[in-house]
Amino acid sequence: MHVIFEGQACVDCTLIIANDDGSGITDPAQHRQNIAHVGLGKLGGVVMACDDDCEGYFSWSPCDYCGSTLGGERHPIAVLGE
Asked: Could you report the per-residue pLDDT of 9-43, keeping only the tens digit for each?
């Protein structure tokens, strides 16, 4: 396996990627639709790419996983492919 994409994910998406936990999301069905629309998961397996001491950073840039432009923390993610 190798990294085929590197990007940044919002906090909501990091919880989904790391723990498959969308319980804190106001509209989880819509959020999952947004993730499917972006389609990053179609490229390969999406994983967190944080170091042990990763604290993220504040950004208004779109989340690479769901496309949200809501301001908040962003954390590194990677897509692994064959």
From this structure: 999 999 999 999 988 899 999 999 999 999 999 99
Strand partners, 53: none
Q: Where do the structural domains in the chain lie, given as residue ranges? A: 2-81
pTM of the entire structure?
A: 0.91
Specify whether the CB–CB gap between 77 and 8 falls below 8 A.
yes
Contacts of 57 (CB under 8 A, 6+ apart): 73, 74
Q: How far is it, in rounded angstroms, from Cα 45 to Cα 18?
A: 12
Distance separating alpha carbons of residues 8 and 11, to the nearest angstrom: 10
